[in-house]
Amino acid sequence: MTVIVLVAAPEGLRGHLTRWMVEVSAGIFVGNPSKRIRDRIWTLLANRIGDGQAVLVEPAANEQGWAVRTAGKDRWYPVDFDGLILSARNRR
Asked: What is the pTM of this model?
């Protein structure tokens, strides 16, 4: 399963995602796209998110069973801490 969360997304981006995923709540999308489609969706999101934020949680062959990607400004970053993925923010 793949989960995408959009915050302050540009107009039309949420509608574009509904082609492959279901919007279960405002800005939260759930689906099971193939890796190829998931990578294409992420490329589109990363290029068009602008001042918003995007988070993608996808299946992965690691201890947690998932991986995360982030894009946008003022966002959290995934950090590998001895095999455990945690989220960190840059200090200002």
From this structure: 0.85
